[in-house]
Please model this.
Amino acid sequence: MKERLEKILEEELGMVITLERPLKEHGDYASNVAFSLAKKEKKSPREIAEKLEKRVRSELFSKVEAKDGFLNFFLSEKALKEELLTVINEREDYKRGGEGGVMVIDYSSPNIAKPFGIGHLRSTIIGQSLYNIYSFLGWSVTGINHLGDWGTQYGKLLYQIKKENKDPEELSVKELEDLYVRFHKDMENDPRLEEKGREWFLKLEKGEEEARRLWQICKRKSLEEFEKIYEELEVSIDHTLGESFYEDKLQDIIEEARKKGVAKESEGALIVEFKDLPPAMLLKSDGSTTYFTRDLAAVKYRLERFSPDKMVYEVGADQVLHLKQLFEAAEKLGLANKENFFHVAHGMFRLKEGKLSTRRGRTVHLEDVLSRIKEKARETVKDSPSLEGLSPDKKERVISKIAVGAVKYNDLKRHYKRSVVFDWDEMLSLKGDSGPYLQYTCVRCKSVLKKGGEYDKAIDEEFNERERELVKMIVAFREIVEAAGNNFSPNIIAEYTHKLAKEFNSFYDEYKISGNDKRMAITEGVLVIIMQCLSLLTISVPEKM
Model:
């Protein structure tokens, strides 16, 4: 709606007009263009606004008001009806597209040899939502799952596997995690084990056959488990390129850093120094590479392969320093301007007893969360008459969509910067400001439309004030999506969707909809927009609830 109005005003006034959302009493849109013209024309903003007001003739405005130098615009009945019908006719394509650039987004990135933890849930679902949002806005987006599959931690795991004479083929991913936890418990009594872990990682880097064989088994078993989780979460990432993928690219980035004078020797290690940040290590004193080296090689690869305008990292706030170093180093090397990089630093999941920590055995596995919330959803819907007659498989699919929707929305409704103290009661909530509430609103709309049958979309009748406000909420959709993209904040869409659903449900309780054309049209508009919003949040809607 906003961009259409801006084009009309540009044609009528002969200048570019940017519209903003003012306080409700100042109209539906407002512009401060008179203030920017005042100095140039040597007139007061009030005088300029009054002249501009008289030149606006579009039927899409019921009133244009010059007030205190601002131009306030009030949408007409015609504008609202036309836009509502556009929503209904275009459906999932409503406001899709635009002139976007090229983006690479790094998200999810779990570590192998550990079950998928609740800590990686945030990166996965926030990252997927940002992928969806930017794709919707017309960007060419590539998602990369930067799998944690390389580093000293896997040297520690391999040491423990050999120490306990285990065959990883016979172990579950949970049992591999237990081995890692036991290594750190043993290390509390024998700190020399740290060196054993480094030795085994060096063997892995040098390509020793036994180390490679054991590591490959751990990686394969982990990927098989991750795929099941992604399928359940309805998440699909374009490329899974773990840290190990860059193994043959590390020497090039190291030599480039040396050649350009970006790297220097320090106590046997190779480091990169920065003006306002601590140094980062490219090579340890034993010659092994670091997380930083591999991330820098990944930056170079992504720039060469995808030529992105934006490189987005949906990674936890605990990586702020590391990514600042990475972006600075990329600029020092002349790979890209650091302004092209964006870190969506989500707050961390924490337990009541402290930070999540695999080595201390303080973890919450996503599989356990999904299992428990499915059980709660199963209990909630067991007496639902609308599910009677469904086969057990179809009923289970409904339950899965409710459970996964609840888990996703519980996270996405928060601003990404907020840390989350893990709470089972809140995580398992199916009521109020929740995913199932939004899903149920969609199911309710579908039911109303099915019972009401065909209706006349001409909408001859005028909207009352309540109906007009609902339609205004519907047609604000594109602005909401743009705001979410500009701020890397899916919670903006979640908040908007909840307000729209709440307003519609209140409207449903107050008015008879079936048999009334304009209310049937509003119901269909609400359905289209909430379905679009949930799609952007990667939340699917069951046919029945």
Remarks:
- The chain has a mean pLDDT of 92.
- The domain at 2-75 is CATH 3.30.1360.70 (Gyrase A; domain 2).
- The longest strand covers residues 61-67.
